[in-house]
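Our working data are protein records whose layout never changes between entries. Getting from the letters to the tokens is the skill we practise here. To make this concrete, we reproduce a full record directly below:
***
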Amino acid sequence: ESHYILAQTFADKLLEDDVEIAFKELKLVDEGDEDEDSLAAKEFTEEAKAKFAEWKLEVCKNIEEGCKKGFSVRQTWLVFNGAIHLWNLYLPVLRLPDFQMKIVHESRSAFKMCFDSMNQLLPEGVFDPEKPDYNLSSKINIFANLGAANAKILEYDNHNNEA
């Protein structure tokens, strides 16, 4: 869980500077109340751009690491929390029809790790009569959505057999 908190901390730092988390290119958050001129007028130094790229990488690394650790101790809830964090942070880019071309490259391994871990742990959590899962419909929903996104990413990267 601490890895997810770290990921959220780096995401919050990006958002404080009005920088979108999920886009590989530097893109400002579209608040809807700013016009194009004010968005274009905000310029960043090369140092700031490098810092933002590092923070985007830290978001991905921490979600992936949290998911790995959750999977290693067979904690379905930890794996699904990581997937939900990833989904929520990346939703602005995932809404786009061509998101595969715009997404932070380092996020690909986090998407794969979350999906593969969910895929292996979901049956354990679903079919355990000793512990009924009251969040099953939510888990299946995030599993399906993340799986579809992961498949599109893999297909875009020419990993068609994995998709």
About this structure: The two ends are 28 Å apart (CA to CA). The longest helix spans residues 46-72.
